[in-house]
Amino acid sequence: MRKLVVTENITLDGVIDMTGGWFDPLNQDVDQSDITAATTEHREAADALLVGRNTFEAFRGFWPDQKDDHTGVSDYLNAVDKYVVSRTLEDPAWENSTVLRGPLADEVHALKAAPGRDIVATGSVRLVHELIAEGLVDEYRLFVFPVVVGRGARLFESVDVRLELLETRPFTSGAVLLRYAAGSTR
């Protein structure tokens, strides 16, 4: 069975909302080669992306146009199977994209039962909160950046989740990767 992995860029105070511009995926002012290597490892372990409509539309409006993308994200997103959870999106207008309209738990269970590698959910604050509440997440990969913003949507809100640490990996920028296996949700 495939794993559902939530991968988020997150501040020290738990914010995953990008409002305020604290995160720049193409920041060339900071050496991010070690972060790029880690995200490349994660992409190679995944063959599906699960996102909500807002994140999907933001990605679709940005990444396909990044021709000089040194991170490899643009090529990956153009090629990977993308699943967008939406009741309103009619035509995804991006190759390899499928709109999921059914009950979330049923759709995710079907994806996890299908052959393949990891399914990654990223961004998509509302969707990720639903995935956590439904107990559908198998692993969390959190890229924690040394930033405190004080406000914004947090990854864990109004839920008690027990996690098992799998890995810690510091990066030269001061960011740290924290990998956790999902435990019980209460």
UniProtKB/TrEMBL annotation:
Q: Which organism is it from?
A: Streptomyces synnematoformans
The organism's place on the tree of life at top rank: Bacteria
* Lineage of origin: Bacteria, Bacillati, Actinomycetota, Actinomycetes, Kitasatosporales
Q: Mind telling me which Pfam families this protein's record contains?
A: RibD_C (PF01872)
- Domain Bacterial bifunctional deaminase-reductase C-terminal, which positions? 2-176
Q: What is the protein name for this chain?
A: Dihydrofolate reductase family protein
